Amino acid sequence: MQPQPTTAPAPPAATATPPVIQLTGIEKVYQTSTIETVALSNVNLSINRGEFVSVMGPSGCGKSTLLSLMGLLDEPSGGTIAIDGRPVGSYSDKELAGLRNHKIGFVFQSYHLINDLSVRDNVELPLLYRPGIGGSERRRRALAALDKVGLTARTGHFPAQLSGGQRQRVAIARALVGEPEIILADEPTGNLDSVMGEEIMDLLLGLNRAQGTTLVMVTHDEQQALKTGRLVRFFDGRQVA
Amino acid sequence: MIRHIFTLMWNRRRANGLLVLEIFLAYVVLFAVGTIGSSLWENYRQPLGFRFDNVWQVNFLPGTQPKAEALGTLQQVLARLRATPGVLGVAVTASNTPFSFNDSRTAIDFADRPGGPKRPINNINSYAVGPELRDVMGLEVTKGRWFDQRDAVAGSHPPLVIDEQMQRAMFPTGESALGKLLTLNKDKQWRIIGVVRAYRTDGELKEPLPAIFGPIAPADTLFLPQSLLVRVAPGSGAALEKRLADDIRRIGPGWTSTIRTLDEMHSSQLKQVITRPLLLSVMSIFLLLNVALGLFGVLWLAISARRAELGVRRALGAPAGAIARLIVGETLALTTFGLVLGLLVAVQFPLLGALGERTSVYLTAIALAAGALYLLATICALYPSRLAAGIRPAVALREE
Ligand SMILES: Nc1ncnc2c1ncn2[C@@H]1O[C@H](COP(=O)(O)OP(=O)(O)OP(=O)(O)O)[C@@H](O)[C@H]1O
Ligand SMILES: [Mg+2]
């Protein structure tokens, strides 16, 4: 299978449209009382509109950290992050929240579903923070997203009543529901069997192809990585390929 | 968002149960304090009906003097006091003078009177007073007339003056009581000749009771009043007091007297009446403080237990304000639940007419307590909600 035709052609960085996400000289240091961990060191990375990028590397090399910075969940210790060419340092809290809500869909490595909410309410959550979407519309979209990940039979369940793989699919549905321009997925198929993993992978590829969704995916699966447009490798906090 | 809050509350009902209980208890305490407070306020707002500045109360004991003689001596004393410079008026009265803690209560059974209220009127303050009382105490006659010479020549029915509260109790529909006959003590009939605004000798903080006034005529030989109310010129002091006491001792063989100003009696009565509610209020303030701290603590704990959840919400695009609103909204919704439970208890009081308090007082207390409860809950939720709003989305990555 050829990976190239499945992705939309990425415009070269030099064109007028700036990269959707641009990391320049990114450092991330985790400070605890006893030790200091350098999670990322001098990372320069541009993600262009419509790209599907996979990130690989050994455990602890900083992949999740990278994704959380791209998803505006955390701030770098150094360097700048620009979204659509504008450095995020200049955004207010409200604007950042708006970006996280409208522009980005995030699939956490450990799902992070809200235990007190049913599957459907969990998936609706991003829409709750979008003004102007009524309850029935939220429900409709949530059910549609759950349908895409094959979980229509479990909408009234609570996360504690689901298997690991089912939770992962709920987390994916939650990232899809707002139809974001960018999806950042941290090992989205890590807990799925190969058939289900394949289906989710096809779903992501389909989004990339049909809707031009920009995707950054952390994976340990070489086969999956080969299907994406670009592969970035990390080792010990540095980009090595 | 509101539906989301209720969904969340329902799903967390077990954890929220404690909070609702806490809020319910807070409401009950607030309702109790509110009832005491609004009862006192309701009483305080009613007109007292008399002026007590520059009025002295003179109590005397006729010693061993026989009653028939003492009546004559009293007339001499009265004449003497009235002629004293600085004395503006003297009224005889039974011992239930203002702020004296003495009272004389009666009840009237109206069951036999056609057209009147079927239920009896209990707890009527009954005053035997001389006709001078109106001027000495500045009573305001609102209908009919006060006692005067005409009463001395009147026919079979002795005259009676009532206050407005009594008028309302007798005729809730507003019919005038003037000219009506009133049977007291099952035998004698009295004719109502006038209505005064009020004469609340129990003081401004006690519940106003209906009052009736019967005259003590100068020629009365049955009843020897042992109290006088004396209006003196402003600025009168110890010199006049000594002179009055000396005169009484000189005219009445073996008579002794005590003189106190109503001002002074008023303050000591006020102190005594206010002590219990004040103590209760102080206790309930501590109780409420306790409840507030509990509420605050439970909310704070809830926030720390929900850091991951709130971080996820932030990560999914909730602005800080939405998180704060979520916490305050949840707290207020829970407050409403606790309030509904509390209301179920509170409305029993006016419904059952328990404790004999007025319905209006209960209703005021119910409303006040509800307002105070929301205020308390909002204040308690404010800081935790700010804490919650300050949770950064990165928290979602770490907690679990
Ligand atoms: N909140 C934190 N505090 C301190 N150190 C952290 C924190 N988060 C991550 N680290 C450290 O930063 C480094 C990179 O972590 P990260 O989670 O990005 O790795 P990863 O590549 O996603 O690993 P994995 O493949 O196991 O998920 C690790 O050494 C980790 O211990
Ligand atoms: Mg990771």
Automatic annotation (TrEMBL), chain A:
Keywords: ATP-binding, Nucleotide-binding, Transport
Domain ABC transporter span(s) in chain numbering: 21-241
Recorded superkingdom: Bacteria
GO molecular function, one term: ATP hydrolysis activity
Stored InterPro entries: AAA+_ATPase, ABC_transporter-like_ATP-bd, ABC_transporter-like_CS, ABC_transpr_LolD-like, MacB-like_ATP-bd, P-loop_NTPase
Gene Ontology annotations for the cellular component aspect, listed alphabetically: membrane protein complex; plasma membrane
PANTHER family reported in the protein's UniProt record: ABC TRANSPORTER ATP-BINDING PROTEIN YTRE, IMPORT ATP-BINDING PROTEIN
Family: Belongs to the ABC transporter superfamily. Macrolide exporter (TC 3.A.1.122) family.
Protein's name in the database: ABC transporter ATP-binding protein
Organism, scientific name: Hymenobacter polaris
UniProtKB/TrEMBL annotation, chain B:
Alphabetized UniProt keyword annotations: Cell membrane, Membrane, Transmembrane, Transmembrane helix
KW Transmembrane (keyword) present: yes
InterPro entries (UniProt xref): ABC3_permease_C, MacB_PCD, Macrolide_Exporter_MacB
Membrane topology: Multi-pass membrane protein
Boundaries of every ABC3 transporter permease C-terminal domain copy: 282-391
Principal cellular location given in the protein's record: membrane
Keyword Lipid biosynthesis: no
Compartment(s): Cell membrane
Molecular-function GO term, any one: transmembrane transporter activity
Pfam families reported in the protein's UniProt record: FtsX, MacB_PCD
GO cellular component: plasma membrane
Recorded superkingdom: Bacteria
Domain MacB-like periplasmic core per the UniProt entry, residue ranges: 20-243
Segments passing through the bilayer: 20-41, 278-303, 323-349, 361-383
The family this protein is said to belong to: Belongs to the ABC-4 integral membrane protein family.
Protein's name in the database: FtsX-like permease family protein
